[in-house]
Amino acid sequence: MIFEPLASDFYGFESLLTAPEQEAIARLRAWAETEAKPIVNEYWERAEFPKHLITPLLELDVARWAWPETTPFENSAVFRGLASMELSRIDASISTFVGVQDGLTMGSISECGSQEQQDEWLPKLASGEVLGAFGLTEPQSGSDSAQGLRTTATRDGDEWILSGSKRWIGNATFSDITIIWAKDTADGQVKGFIVPTDSPGYSATKIEGKISLRMVQNADITLEDVRVPERLRLQHANSFRDTAKVLRLTRAGVAWSSVGVAVGAYEAAVAYAKERVQFGKPIAGHQLIQDLLSKCLGNITASMAMCVRVSQMLDEGTQRDEHSALAKAFCTARMRETVAWAREIMGGNGIVLDYHAARFFADAEALYSYEGTREMNALIVGRAITGTAAFV
C-alpha cells in the first residue's frame, strides 16, 4: 500500500518512519478513513461504541506495537505515537479504546506482571480474545491517587479480597478483565490485580450524560469483597511507583492523541474553508480565515515536534516523568485552542456533527483532563525544575 504523508504534517515528521512502519500507518489510515470515519458521528451521538470495529481494528495489530512479547515487527515509539495520532484524527474514542486495551491494560501486565502473566495475557489482549480495562481513578480519588486510594486489598491465604469502587473506567462495560489498583491493608502499598469481570461481587455501570468521548463506555465499578487468587496479582506491582511507570508510558500517548484531535479538527476546517462561499468567494481566500488556519497548523506542528522528541527519548531510555508530563500538558492545551479555532472557522455550522469539528471540540475536553490534569502535570514539571514538590 502506498504511503502518502499527511498535508497537516507540515514539517514531514512521518519521514522518520521506516518503510515497514510507513506501510503499517498506510494500512491503518486506509481502514480508519473507509471503515470508521463514515460511522463515528452516528455512534458518538448515540453514545455507543461500534463494537463491530474491534476485531478488524485489532487485526491491524494496533494492540501489539508496544510490547516485545507480541510485536509483529521492530517498531519505534515515534511510530506508535503517530499510529495513535492517526486514529485520533478520525475519532478520539477509537484511539482511547486502543489506549486502554494496549497502553493501560497490556502496559500494566508488561511492566508489572511476571513472565508467566505476560505469556498468558498479552497475546490474548493483542488479538482481542480478551478485552481489558484499567481501574485506578475512584469517585473520591483522581489526582491524589498516590495517597488517596480507598479501594483495599486484604490477603486471605492464597486469595486477596478487594473492596471499594472505581469511576471513569473506559471499556469497563464490556471488558473481560480489569486491572484494579488497590491499597494493601497490611503494608499500605498500592498493588495491582488482574480481575475477571465475571467475578462475584464485581459490577460495572455505564456513566450516562457525557458531553465528551461519548463513544467511550466509561463505567462506575463496584467491588464488594471480590476474591482474586494470588496468581492474578501483578507480581511486580509493589507500590504506586510501579503504577506510575505505566502512566508515564501512556501519558505521552495522550499527548499524541491530542495532536490527532487537533489535526482532525484542522483538516475539517481546511476542507470547509475551501467549499464555503461568502462574499463571492470561498472563505479560504479571506485573510482572517488564513490567519486562524496558520495558527492551528503552528500549534499542531509544535505539538508534533514535542511528541516526536519525547518518543525518541522513550526509545533511548532517557524519558522521565517530567518529559511526558510536559508533553501532555502542552499538547492538550494547544489542542484546546486549535479545536476552538477550527470550530470558529465554520461559524454556526461548527456546532453540527455533520462537519466533524463539533465532535473534536467536545472530545478535546476529556483529553485535556484525563491522564493527569494540566495543573497536575505542570506540578510534575515544576518539581523537576525547582527540586521542590508543590502538590499540596
From TrEMBL:
Alphabetically sorted, this entry's keywords are: FAD, Flavoprotein, Oxidoreductase
Q: Which cofactor does it need?
A: FAD
Taken from the record, one Pfam family name reads Acyl-CoA_dh_1
* Ranges in coiled-coil conformation: none
**Molecular function terms, GO-annotated:** acyl-CoA dehydrogenase activity; flavin adenine dinucleotide binding
Question: Where would I find the Acyl-CoA dehydrogenase/oxidase N-terminal domain in this sequence?
Answer: 21-129
Domain (Acyl-CoA oxidase/dehydrogenase middle) ranges? 133-226
Q: Which family does it belong to?
A: Belongs to the acyl-CoA dehydrogenase family.
Q: What is this protein called?
A: Glutaryl-CoA dehydrogenase
Question: What organism does the UniProt record list as the source?
Answer: Plantibacter flavus
Q: What is the lineage of its organism?
A: Bacteria, Bacillati, Actinomycetota, Actinomycetes, Micrococcales
